[in-house]
Each structure stands twice: as C-alpha cells, then as structure tokens.
Amino acid sequence: MRRFELPRRVIDAFASAGVQMDLLPYVAGASRAEVRVALIEPGGTIGRHRATRSQAFAVVAGEGEVAAADEVRHPLQAGHVVVWEAGELHQSWATTAMTVVIVETDGRIETTEHHREL
Fold first, then answer.
1. Chain centre to alpha carbon of residue 47
2. Taking CA atoms, which of 5, 55, 61, 97 is between 20 and 30 Å from 46?
C-alpha cells in the first residue's frame, strides 16, 4: 500500500473559470480500466479483501482509514489517494461520510513527482 496527497491544480484551459481539479495517478499499459464512485456511511467499511487488479482509492470528501495486510490503520481524508497492487490484502473504513473515486485496472497505477507520498 502506498498513500499520497492528490495534487490540485487550477484549470483555465478552454476558457475555463473557477475550476480546481485533483489529479489522479496515471493508468499505464492497460487494456481495461474501470472507474467507480463509492459513498460510504460513517462507520461503514469495504471489507478485507485482495485487490483483483491494481487500484487507486481517492478520497474526494470525508475522512476514514485504510489498512493493508499488516492490519495497521492509516488515516485518510479528502485529497488523499491510496494505491494497491493486484493481490494486495486491504480494508477501508469511513469515520465520517466518505466519498471515494476508485480506479481499477489490469495496467499499472503510476504516480508522478506531483504526488507527495504520505
């Protein structure tokens, strides 16, 4: 498990105004990628399981915790992203209502120098 802050950029291309965007890590070498949005109630959990593919778990609202195989809980909040590799055991919990964007791929999740590891 790797945890990062999501870099946020002001978007002004195409005459855009009033837009800030969190930049998810890249998906590389993929023949398939799926994006989902999870709304997790306070006290809710996505149970302990192995990642079926590489996965980015980006918190866009709220707070929670994640743990890998070692079962040590790490805090998360809006603006954080966790990257799990295929087969990695993990679980997540919401301490407040939490909205998460989940990207699953058979490719690789690649961070850049803009993603600061936590």
1. 16
2. 5
Quick check: helix, strand or coil at residue 14? helix
Q: Could you tell me the CA-to-CA distances from 27 to 96, 116, 117 in Å, in that order?
A: 29, 17, 18
Per-domain residue ranges for the chain? 2-117
| Greatest pairwise CA separation for the chain in angstroms | 47
51-104: per-residue pLDDT in tens? 999 999 999 999 999 999 999 999 999 999 999 999 999 999 999 999 999 999
pTM, full prediction: 0.88
Is residue 92 within 8 Å of 101, Cβ to Cβ?
no
**For residue 13, what is the DSSP state?**
G
Render 62-105 in DSSP notation, one character per residue.
SEEEEE-TT--EEEEETTEEEEE-TT-EEEEEESS-EEEEEEEE
Report domain 2-117's class: mainly beta
